[in-house]
Amino acid sequence: MVWYERAGLAPDEAAREHSHRLARHIDEVLTDAGGWLDFARFMELALYAPGLGYYAAGAVKLGREGDFVTAPEMTPLFARTLANPIARTLASLDGSGEMLELGAGSGQLAFDLLLSLQQQQALPTHYWIMEVSPDLRSRQRDRLAELPDDLFRRVSWCERWPEQIRGVVLANEVLDAMPAQRLRWHDGRWYQAGVARMGGHWGWEYRWLEDETLLEGLPDMTGYPDPYDTEVAPVVEGVMATLASSLVEGRAFLIDYGFPAREYYHPQRSGGTLMCHYRHHAHGDPLVLPGLQDITVHVDFTRVAQAARRYGLRLEAWAGQAQWLMDEGIVEHLESLHRAVPVDYRQLGAAQKLLSPAEMGELFKVLVVGHGSESQAALTALGLGEEEPNGSGDQASEG
Ligand SMILES: C[S@@+](CC[C@H](N)C(=O)[O-])C[C@H]1O[C@@H](n2cnc3c(N)ncnc32)[C@H](O)[C@@H]1O
User: Fold this and answer.
1) Which CATH number, 3.40.50.800, 3.40.50.12710, 1.10.10.10, 3.20.20.10, labels domain 71-175+236-263+299-381?
2) CA within 20 to 30 Å of 118's CA: 10, 13, 164, 268, which one?
3) pLDDT tier, 399 (very low <50, low <70, confident <90, very high otherwise)
4) Residue 170: pLDDT band with limits 50, 70, 90
5) Neighbour-count burial of 92, counting CB atoms closer than 10 A to its CB (0-12 exposed, 13-18 middle, 19+ buried)
6) CA angle, 79 as apex, 75 and 82 as ends, to 5°?
């Protein structure tokens, strides 16, 4: 018996059949590719193969019925607090700013944000959602259709980035879901991890790394444990290039779990950051349960910030989620919860989870890039302090 069966979480017949269909599809691609798929390609197929991948098909993913819970699913306090800096950004554009949310999940963040922004009289003229998953797009549409008409009318879905955005771009837990390469340092050289068939199942096969560009941003490995596994996500380069060319005014809020490069590639993190989520169990094996589990890697925020700056955006702020939410006023929202009768202990528990250093408070980070002033403190924290500042930056943070 495997662990998910022992835990009473064996997929039902329909889920098993779905998973087999995706496995057959991956096998066909694997065969066409000569019997080996680099991990990023495997991850892309497992999550996004049209009609079959985890995000591309029908099962519930987010929330208690699904596999994992994100901050906006836990409590509206997250969106209400995020609404403050978004409202300031939109106000600085004289009320003509738009929003673009990437990967909107169940639509809950958009739902709560639009209500909060309405309360602050700071609605965007338009709320775009770019979502790769057709299944999630239709769930988002259902959820957002429950908004008052005036708000729902502002929402539309787009297939690709709008050519120009003046306003706010938002991505919560999206960068971690983008395909990443897995690398192994062993015996004084780098290998690239890939997936191959081994008997009746998939296994890891390591090949000498040929694409040396994957090593950009990685440290000198002298003194590192052997073997040392890690991940790199070159895809963020393209995402930041597109963001920079689209966001002509305003800023982007990128929220996710991750570290600066010096912690990401720390000698003690020798197992990498690859993580899978199935029915609220986190584990490290992406080769099981294809199509039924989420596969993620933590975000190397130094890489993201560096790429954003390379394409002309400024690093306005970077902070741990707890600190950032407190700076942006979550405490006032909490106080009003405490004053309410009866006290909503579920909301208070969720807020505790968002803020606790042992839960999401420190692992999750908020990166703000845009056209404002560059924050020297953020540059230093991300190990970019020595680099030539981009534009006329000063010490200020995002404002
Ligand atoms: C972990 S979920 C987070 C959902 C939501 N933002 C939240 O916080 O609840 C990741 C989301 O990103 C979407 N996604 C992944 N890659 C994407 C991409 N390249 N462009 C747009 N959406 C993407 C997924 O389909 C999914 O909606």
Assistant:
1) 3.40.50.12710
2) 164
3) very low
4) very high
5) middle
6) 135
